[in-house]
Write a structure and sequence with these properties.
With 628 residues, the protein is an alpha/beta fold. Helix content is 36%, strand content 15%. The chain contains 21 helices and 21 strands. The strands form seven sheets. A six-stranded mixed β-sheet has the order 2-1-3-4-5-6. α14 links the parallel β16 (398-405) and β17 (438-445). α9 (286-300) runs parallel beside α10 (318-328).
């Protein structure tokens, strides 16, 4: 049954969020499909359409002749009100079928503050939010993404979590669904089959146990077939790049063509979850990127290309790649979403700027060398100041710097160092940019994340952060530097959900019932609802956010194997207070983090070749550049 939405569209803002029909979207015959999958992103269309992972899975599934894959996003409050008033279920964009009619409904989890939207979308779809309440005709609800590496705060609501990289797993899941439909498998059998799918966690077959203090003690399998530890999925070689992405109707967060040039990062920043869970580093060749770009431009009409990676200028062949792109596509604007804090990165950015030299973004993360060493951010003050001088000398007029506040071992002197760094960059800009320099400092509050060395760290309270924010605000104003920060209230909820167990899941349920949705949007975030939910469910939020945990105590996510082992993370946590650093193993010796033992290609292969490449100098944009 298709959902009639025309009457709803007349009464909402941005109706283009809900209509489908975009260029490169795929519409298949509903009745002819053997397997029907809906991919759901628990945020507005404007945000979700910028997620490359969703686009990759959509493309892979629709490439299978008998599989139909469609999309759904969280409806904004005005559309939700109209849907509830009219009794209209949440629908897919392509054929406007109700989500409850699909065989599989898959959620992408990228940010903890979207969790209440997951429950709201299930409810709007007419699917019971709790897994235990679903019947034979309800779809299997799966979830993946970086936030799924601690699945427990959503465990009662998701039938199965696919942990790690999904390109191969999604095809295996579709194959299972074919068999289920052919054999008429009951729901219980479908869930049991998922236990055997590598990288898949099925919460219904596990029970959480707590100690006498009420702290998490263990997650115990309830069935012999349930593995005590689930290994994440890793693709050994990057699949072909996405070259026919859907071109959105509306302006989205990243409205441009994009090629993933590299996956993984081994710089080893101790606060960074992505740098731990997406190891090892895998690269695309310059030739592959050029050919992907050619196909992308032909299929989309975009005039701007983003080279995606956790740290783009760490790609071992970034120079020949950029040279090839600029030579092959002389009118193409190229952007780097993430760059290292050094002059080499500025040179790369300068070569692709095409005269568009407005803002260069750098991420020193901490205001002192001592603290950068503690968090293993391997850049120096000379790197930063040299990069700023290079940028202003080459015509850039604005530098934006990202820092974190509340990092473990941070002192007020470290925070003052952020102001001093902003002041010095501003002074460089007054000379290098002819007095037109704009310098912006943006800070985020540290949130401890699962599977990082900081998973045991406490988050500073709002009261502890307040004097640091005042120092930054007053100091930056005096230095002529713009300053922005995020609210400690939403950072606190993010920390609770990041380190939560199944008891926190009950608070997620309660917060949603109280009206919490779109918590990631500042205008919609209401912390009082969350405090009421924690109180109602007997959850101590301070334990999850503001307590430092014992490094030998059980963790709610111990059943998820991210590849990086716990002993390595424990050693890295100790090194925070010794201010010891470790190098990037992609360009040097193996750090024995645990990934080297995983059943994937040798993560340190070709290191010698990479080092030799970086020892030489290359000519780039007419100038010799040293690659180290």
């Amino acid at each position: 049954m298709t959902v009639g939405i025309e009457r709803l569209l007349e009464r909402v803002t941005k109706p283009g969020r809900y209509t489908g029909g975009e260029w490169n979207s795929v519409v298949k015959d509903w009745d002819a499909a053997a397997v029907r999958v809906a991919l759901a992103y628990p945020d507005a269309y404007d945000i979700g359409m910028s997620n490359m992972g969703l686009g990759i899975l959509y493309d892979l599934l629709n490439a299978e002749a008998d599989v139909l894959c469609e999309r759904a996003f969280a409806p904004w409050s005005d559309m939700e009100a109209e849907m509830r008033r009219e009794g209209a279920p949440l629908w897919s964009l392509e054929t406007r079928h109700a989500l409850r009619e699909f065989d599989i409904l898959g959620f992408t989890l990228q940010y903890e503050l979207t969790y209440t939207n997951v429950l709201n979308m299930l409810d709007l779809a007419g699917i019971p939010p709790r897994s235990r309440d679903r019947g034979e005709d309800d779809p299997i609800v799966v979830a993946g993404g970086s936030s799924a590496f601690n699945p427990e705060p959503l465990a009662p609501f998701i039938d199965a979590f696919v942990l790690g990289e999904g390109e191969e797993a999604i095809g295996e899941l579709a194959a299972l669904a074919r068999g289920w439909k052919r054999e008429g498998a009951p729901r219980s059998a479908r869930l049991r089959d998922l236990l055997a799918l590598p990288g898949t966690y099925v919460p219904a077959f596990y029970e959480a146990r707590y100690d006498d203090r009420g702290h998490f003690a263990a997650l115990e399998p309830l069935d012999p077939a349930a593995p005590p530890v689930i290994q994440r999925r890793v693709v050994e070689q990057l699949p072909p790049p996405l070259t026919r992405p859907i071109v959105p109707f509306l302006q989205t967060v990243h409205d441009r063509a994009a090629v993933e040039i590299q996956r993984g990062c081994t710089q080893g920043c101790r606060f960074c979850q992505a740098g731990m869970i997406y190891r090892p580093t895998r690269e695309r060749s310059p030739d592959e990127v050029v050919e992907a770009t050619r196909a992308l431009l032909a299929a989309t009409g975009y005039e701007e290309l983003s080279l995606l990676s956790l740290s783009t200028t760490d790609h071992s062949r970034i120079v020949p790649m950029v040279e090839a792109l600029t030579e092959t596509f002389p009118d193409l604007r190229i952007s780097l979403p993430s760059t290292r804090v050094d002059s080499f990165s500025v040179d790369v950015a300068n070569a692709i700027a095409k005269g568009k030299k407005h803002t260069l973004t750098l991420a020193p993360e901490a205001g002192s060398q001592r603290l950068r060493n503690a968090v293993n951010k391997l850049v120096s003050e000379d790197d930063l100041l040299g990069a700023a001088a290079n940028a202003f000398a080459r015509g850039w007029t604005s530098v934006k710097m990202y820092f974190m506040v509340g990092l473990p071992s941070e002192t007020i002197d470290d925070v003052a160092g952020i102001v001093e760094m902003g002041r010095r960059v501003k002074e460089i800009g007054r000379t290098g940019a002819g007095g037109r320099a704009r310098v912006r400092v943006s800070t985020s509050n540290h949130v401890p994340k699962a599977h990082t060395p900081f998973q045991w760290a406490r988050q500073e309270t709002a009261e502890e952060l307040a004097p640091k924010h005042r120092l930054l605000k007053d100091g930056c104003r005096a230095a002529g530097v713009e300053f922005s920060w995020n609210d400690p209230a939403d950072s606190r909820i993010e920390a609770i959900l990041s380190r939560g167990d199944r008891r926190v899941a009950e608070a997620v349920w309660r917060a949603w019932r109280l009206g919490a949705t779109f918590d990631a949007w500042s205008e919609r975030f209401r912390p009082a609802l969350w405090d009421a939910a924690f109180a109602a469910e007997g959850v101590d939020p301070d334990w999850f956010a503001h307590e430092e945990w014992d490094t030998f105590a059980p963790l709610p996510w111990d059943h998820v194997a991210s590849g990086v082992n716990k002993s390595y993370l424990r050693g890295q946590w100790r090194d925070v207070f010794r201010e010891h650093t470790v190098g990037d193993c992609h360009h040097g010796a193996c750090n024995v983090c645990g990934v080297q033992d995983a059943p994937v290609a040798d993560c340190v292969a070709k290191v010698g070749e990479l080092i030799e490449l970086r020892r030489g100098s290359r000519t780039f944009a007419g100038e010799p550049l040293e690659l180290v």
